[in-house]
């Protein structure tokens, strides 16, 4: 029997509260319908409408900034009482929700800027913008979800369009392979998650996260094993979504095969989706089983950051490797750092989740900025090898300085103050929770990360390779040894792109503001979010 069987079920709807994801979904449908009538030469208008829709969705977060609204609530009217009392809500716009929605919608907006030129030249515009906005709507819904059914639906709404986005380069074998790997891994994660959710529901009789937190303490003895298995399977499913080791194998090939803006989107928004779901099911729904998920997440954090950094270290051993592949392995390592405060929440009574959110905000800004510079370089060097960045400062000093700033933030070095402070915050969360061994492993991984981030940064300022000079006399005889072939042509100035340039400027400005005033992000770590 459900806890509301003795009362009246009432669904209250606050339209302003659900406005950000709702507007994003409405604009997605409008773009899809408009694509049928807009002539090919005016398809760029679809991108402008999508970008404006994401900006409007971001603006709708302003009236919700108090973080005290909820909707789709169940209420119980007891027969002995004349008033109703709130029981549980499926959608909550608290501080945690608003910060993650800011990250998600802001990341989608920057992805839209990176995509305006791609859709004009390479990708089908209508399908691309519909899929991007649909995924963003699901990603914005997920942090507000406060029952397992809504959480899983939001997770799939965010994930399913992403499969198609990865494989949207028609006729490209790598794109199709990347989409298949991403699809198979995500479907497996969904199946495991649904199995875990069904076990939890069978043991507790409820799907609301707050109700689960209370009921898991009082599960009958014969259902205890079922409840523990459900908790474990649900965590495994979300570990797939966060690309934690050993569920990370799809990341490098997916990022390389996907269109570059889609890879940027997955690295930030896709990661935010997985970590948000993981936070909700652990800290909000399963706090009574911290003895299960705490040690598991601590081990996953250590393995993930180590595997990501070691693999990234291998990428710089030869400059023929793709810069996108290096960023892909870097994102795996960063996922390990993001897991640390979640694991620490199992060992400490303090709210450690703010440290993950503060780190995620820093990571989103600088990683999207790095991808924006990579997109700019790709306009003149489609191969996007690391060797293509040698001498970038000589041809595009502003882009080189911006990329250096982003890489130093990811490494945690000045002048990237926000990157340094964010790492210190995560490190402190592990120490405060008594996870000294995890803090040591994190420190070692930060040192490993310094090598490949600094090596890429140094490459930007090295002299460009010289091309072989034209002969001044007659050609040499056949017996003479041929001239050496340069390792890579000198970098060419990338064609100007206003949307990509705007994305670089916005992320660089946001990174500079956060470095100058890190309290904007770090106050979440100090005050907590739950």
Automatic annotation (TrEMBL):
Membrane topology: Multi-pass membrane protein
Regions that span the bilayer: 15-38, 45-64, 96-116, 128-145, 151-168, 180-202, 229-251, 263-286, 292-314, 326-347, 353-378, 399-422, 434-454
Pfam families: Proton_antipo_M
This enzyme's EC code(s): 7.1.1.-
Subcellular location, record wording: Cell membrane; Endomembrane system; Membrane
Reactions this protein catalyses: a quinone + NADH + 5 H(+)(in) = a quinol + NAD(+) + 4 H(+)(out)
Region (Disordered): 470-492
Biased composition regions of type Low complexity, renumbered to the chain: 475-492
Annotated keywords: Cell membrane, Membrane, NAD, Quinone, Translocase, Transmembrane, Transmembrane helix, Transport
Domain NADH:quinone oxidoreductase/Mrp antiporter transmembrane: 145-448
InterPro entries associated with the record: NADH-Q_OxRdtase_suN/2, ND/Mrp_TM
Oligomeric and partner information: NDH-1 is composed of 14 different subunits. Subunits NuoA, H, J, K, L, M, N constitute the membrane sector of the complex.
Function: NDH-1 shuttles electrons from NADH, via FMN and iron-sulfur (Fe-S) centers, to quinones in the respiratory chain. The immediate electron acceptor for the enzyme in this species is believed to be a menaquinone. Couples the redox reaction to proton translocation (for every two electrons transferred, four hydrogen ions are translocated across the cytoplasmic membrane), and thus conserves the redox energy in a proton gradient.
Family listed: Belongs to the complex I subunit 2 family.
Protein name: NADH-quinone oxidoreductase subunit N
Organism: Streptomyces gulbargensis
């Amino acid at each position: 029997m459900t806890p509301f069987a003795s009362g009246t079920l009432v669904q209250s709807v606050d339209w302003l509260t659900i406005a950000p994801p709702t507007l994003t979904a409405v604009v997605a449908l409008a773009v899809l319908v408009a694509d049928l009538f807009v002539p090919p030469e005016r398809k760029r208008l679809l991108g402008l409408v999508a970008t404006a829709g994401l900006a409007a969705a971001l603006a709708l977060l302003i009236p919700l900034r108090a973080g005290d609204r909820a909707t789709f609530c169940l209420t119980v009217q007891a027969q002995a009482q004349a008033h109703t009392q709130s029981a549980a809500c499926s959608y909550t716009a608290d501080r945690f929700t608003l910060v993650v929605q800011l990250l998600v919608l802001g990341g989608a907006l920057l992805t839209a800027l990176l995509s305006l030129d791609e859709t004009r030249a390479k990708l089908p515009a209508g399908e691309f913008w519909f899929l991007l906005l649909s995924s963003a709507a699901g990603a914005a819904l997920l942090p507000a979800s406060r029952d397992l059914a809504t959480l899983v639906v939001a997770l799939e709404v965010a994930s399913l369009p992403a499969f198609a986005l990865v494989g949207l380069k028609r006729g490209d074998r790598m794109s199709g392979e990347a989409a298949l790997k991403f699809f198979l891994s995500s479907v497996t994660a969904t199946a495991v998650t649904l199995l875990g959710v069904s076990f939890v529901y069978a043991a507790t009789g409820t799907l609301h996260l707050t109700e689960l937190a209370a009921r898991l303490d009082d599960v009958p003895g014969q259902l205890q094993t079922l409840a523990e298995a459900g908790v474990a399977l649900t965590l495994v499913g979300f570990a797939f979504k966060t690309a934690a080791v050993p569920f990370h194998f799809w990341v490098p090939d997916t990022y390389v095969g996907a269109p570059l803006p889609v890879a940027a989107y997955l690295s930030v928004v896709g990661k935010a989706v997985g970590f948000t779901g993981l936070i909700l099911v652990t800290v909000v729904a399963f706090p009574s089983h911290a003895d299960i998920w705490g040690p598991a997440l601590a081990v996953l954090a250590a393995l993930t950051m180590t595997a990501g950094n070691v693999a990234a270290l291998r990428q710089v051993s030869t400059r023929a490797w793709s810069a996108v592949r290096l960023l892909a392995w870097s994102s795996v390592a960063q996922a390990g750092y993001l897991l640390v405060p979640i694991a620490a929440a199992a060992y400490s009574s303090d709210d450690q989740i703010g440290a993950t959110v503060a780190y995620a905000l820093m990571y989103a800004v600088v990683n999207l900025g790095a991808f924006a510079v990579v997109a700019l370089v790709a306009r003149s060097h489609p191969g996007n090898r690391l060797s293509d960045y040698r001498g970038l400062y000589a041809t595009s000093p502003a882009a080189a300085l911006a990329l250096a700033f982003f890489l130093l933030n990811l490494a945690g070095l000045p002048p990237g103050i926000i990157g340094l402070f964010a790492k210190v915050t995560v490190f402190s969360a592990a120490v405060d929770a008594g996870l000294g061994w995890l803090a040591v492993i994190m420190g070692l991984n930060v040192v490993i990360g310094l090598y490949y981030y600094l090596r890429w940064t140094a490459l930007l300022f090295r002299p460009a390779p010289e091309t072989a000079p034209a002969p001044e006399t007659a050609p040499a005889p056949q017996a003479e040894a041929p001239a050496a072939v340069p390792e890579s042509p000198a970098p060419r100035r990338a064609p100007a792109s206003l949307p990509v340039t705007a994305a670089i400027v916005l992320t660089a400005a946001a990174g500079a503001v956060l470095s100058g005033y890190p309290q904007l992000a770090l106050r979440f770590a100090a005050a907590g979010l739950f």
